[in-house]
Specification:
19% strand, 10 helices, 339 residues, 13-stranded mixed sheet, alpha+beta, 2 domains
Length: 339
Amino acid sequence: MPRAFFRRLFLPLPALLLALAAGAAAGRGLPRPTGPAEQARAFLEILEPAARRQARHPWADPSRRRWNFVPGPREGLSLAEQSPEARLALHALLRSVLSEAGYLKASAVMALEAVLRELEGSEQRDPERYWIAFYGEPGGGAPWALRFEGHHLSLNLTFRDGEAFPTPMFFGSNPARVLSGEQAGLQVLAGEEEAFRHFLEALTPDQRAAARAADEAWPEILMRPGVDALPPDRPLGLEVEDLDPGQFDRFLDLVAVFVDRLEPALAAQEWDRLLGVPDEAFRFRFVWAGSAEPGARHAWRIEGPDLILEYVAFQNGGNHVHTVWRGGLREFGGPAEDS
């Protein structure tokens, strides 16, 4: 991919996606990723000393556990403050923790800031207002973590004792479907909505009714920043153990739109953990609310052992989507007292 691409992070969105896809398919452009630790060190080595100090934080810094998805400044180093070479290295780092599909999706979420700037006329909507922060020493024997975050995107990955902990992870999209302009028809999180409808179609009328919590979708994800547990009075919905094999495959497809955002080796670790839960502890539930019609307000949630997946399309009449993957006691590498 030409270096000029990184002088300004984003091309018009269709060109961006085509360029990234072409680079991925041809094996050109961004360097092929090695491990996250190697890519993190390579990125840090490119930075000037002042920028490196801005990007790095002690492992015990309390900001490590503060995540968010609203616009605004963050800890760390922003894209706007990085040289073209540093941005290239940062994208190689992102590709080392995300799958090709996950990387394209994250890039498109950021690029939507340019669409919002055009729609709203606000200079605060800026695809360069995303920050990278590191906690601890990447690749040493001690735990370390990275966060890449800005509006509608929060990637938090912790590496500890030879294991990766990929939550919390947030992807959002506003608009969910671009209705006008050069990007009309673009739907960044289309796979999430499609997998939900395919799963819903596989359920019997009784199962669908048992899973449905309300006629109206709830307005926001429950597991938002600052919330670490679901409310005890929440609707629980349908038990996954009651599904037949075909329905269970559709359920796994729904989980996959979250897990498979990760780089394949990291995703495989999560699949091994999720599918390795003993039968007596395999207590996953699915609940939804709102309309089954495309484009209308709807929301759904999956919860299970150290797993909560949420999708909410409520704002702007349903044309604004928030999704989050929370990891229970595994978030940020484990409870704070164990850190």
